[in-house]
Amino acid sequence: MTELAELESQLVGAVEAAHDEATLDTVRVSALGKKGAISERMKTLGAMSPDERKQAGQALNALKDKVAAAIASRSASLKEAGLEARLATEFVDVTLPVRPEMQGSVHPVSQVWEEITQIFGDMGFSVAEGPHIETDWYNFGALNIPDDHPARQEHDTFYFNPKEDGSRMVLRTHTSPVQIRTMQESETPIRIIAPGRTYRCDSDQTHTPMFHQVEGLVLDDKTHLGHLKWCLEEFCKAFFEVDAVKMRFRASHFPFTEPSMEVDINCSWEKGQVKVGVGDSWLEILGSGMVHPNVIRAGGLDPEKVQGFAFGMGIDRLAMLKYGIPDLRAFFEADLRWLRHYGFRSLNVPTLAGGLS
Ligand code: DAH
User: Fold this and answer.
1) Same domain, yes or no, for 150 and 290?
2) What percentage of the chain reaches a pLDDT higher than 70?
3) Measured between alpha carbons, how far is 357 from 353 in angstroms, rounded to an integer?
4) Ligand 1 pocket, Cβ-based, cut-off 6 angstroms
5) Domain final residue pick, 89, 123, 154
6) Residue 94 — very low, low, confident or very high, per pLDDT cuts 50/70/90?
7) Residue 279 Cα, ligand 1 centroid: separation in angstroms?
8) Pocket perturbation via mutation, ligand 1, pick of 192, 295, 311, 317 by most ligand atoms within 8 A of CB
9) Most buried by CB count within 10 Å: which residue of 51, 59, 86, 329?
10) What are 120-176's pLDDT values in tens digits?
11) Which one, of 66, 61, 58, lies nearest residue 10 by Cα?
12) Residue 34 sits in which domain range?
C-alpha cells in the first residue's frame, strides 16, 4: 500500500469512527486544517519537479476530495441521528389518557358561574363587571338606600378608613352596584348579568366573608313583571336540569325594586338530600323586582321612559343546592380532598347543547 493510500484509509477510518460532531471536527482539522496531514503534504509539492508535482498534486487533490466528501456525509448522518434521538426522547403520545396523577379540577363556584353565564347568554344577556372596592354611593345611595336606612345594618359592611373628606370606600356587599354602572355606561335596551365576588362581615355554615352573587338587569321601554317571571322560570329549569319547576313569588322588600319579590322553588328533602322540581317543600333562591324609579334616575336614565326588572342570587348557594354540598365554609378552605370530591373535570366545559353538569 502506498503512503497516500495508507493515509486515506487512516483518515476515512477516523471519519467513520467519529460518533459526534466535535470528534468529526477534530478529524477534519487534522486532515484538512492548515497544519493537517493533507495540507502539510501539499506544501512539499513546491520542491518537486514539474512531472512529479503534477502526479503527486492530482493524487493529493483526489485524496482531499475523498476525505472532504467522507466528512460531509458523516456529518449529515450524525445530524440526522441527533434529530432522531431528540424526537424519540421528546415524543408525546397525545392519544394516551390523562395521567392519573393530574389533580387539577374546576371549583364548583367556577362551574356554576359558567353554567349561569351559559344559560343567560343563551337568552341574550351579556356579562358586565364592576369594582370590588366601591364608593358608598354606588353600593348604597344610588340603590335607594339612604344613610339612615336599616338595610345598611343588615349588610354587615366592611368599611375602609375614612378619606380626608370623610367619605369611606366599602367592599361591595352585593353585585347590585353594577346595575348603576351599567346604566351610566350603556344605552337601553340593557340586558346584562353581573357575576362576581361580594363581601360581608359574616361567617357560619351558610355565610362566608367573601361570597359570590350574580346580578341581573333588563331595561327597555316595555319589560314587565311577566317577563321577569318567565325569565327566572326558564333559568331555574335549565340550571337545575329539570323539565318543570314550581315557583312561588313572595312579596318582599328591597329598597332598589318596587314591587319586590323573593322567589322560591319547589323541592323535596329525602335523607337530608334536596331535590329540585319535585315535592312540595319550598326553597328560597333569589331576590328580584321591578327596578325602582330612583335607581333608574341614579343610573342617569329617565324612569318615565325606561322600565325593567332586576334580580340577585347567591352563586355559592346555588352550587350547594345543585351539587349537594352541605357547608359553605369548605368552599374556600383549598382542601384538595374536598376539591377532588366536588370539583369538575377541567376539559368538560358546560354548554346548553352538550349538557351543563
Ligand atoms: N342585592 C340583594 C342582596 O344582596 C339581592 C337582590 C335582590 C338584587 C333583589 C336585586 C334585586 O337586583 O332586585 O341581598
Assistant:
1) yes
2) 99
3) 11
4) 174, 176, 215, 254, 257, 287-289, 310-312
5) 89
6) confident
7) 27
8) 311
9) 59
10) 999 999 999 999 999 999 999 999 998 888 778 778 899 999 999 988 999 999 999
11) 66
12) 3-89
Atom of ligand 1 nearest to the CA of 143: 1
Residue nearest atom 12 of ligand 1, based on CA coordinates? 311
pLDDT band at 43 (very low <50, low <70, confident <90, very high): confident
pTM of the predicted model as reported, rounded to 2 decimal places? 0.71
Which atom, in ligand 1's list, is nearest to the CA of 179? 12
pLDDT, tens only, 211-264:
999 999 999 999 999 999 999 999 999 999 999 899 999 999 999 999 999 999
Q: Which of 134, 138, 174 has most ligand 1 atoms within 8 Å of CB, for mutation?
A: 174
State the CB neighbour count (10 A cutoff) for residue 325.
17
- The reported pLDDT for the residue numbered 102 is 62
Does residue 353 lie within any of the structural domains?
no
Which percentage of the chain shows pLDDT scores above 90? Answer: 62
**Count: domains in the chain:** 2
For ligand 1, the distance from its centroid to the CA atom of residue 253, given in whole angstroms, is 10
Kindly state whether residues 141 and 173 are assigned to the same domain.
Answer: yes
Residues 20 and 120 in one domain: no
| CATH code of the domain in which 132 resides | 3.30.930.10
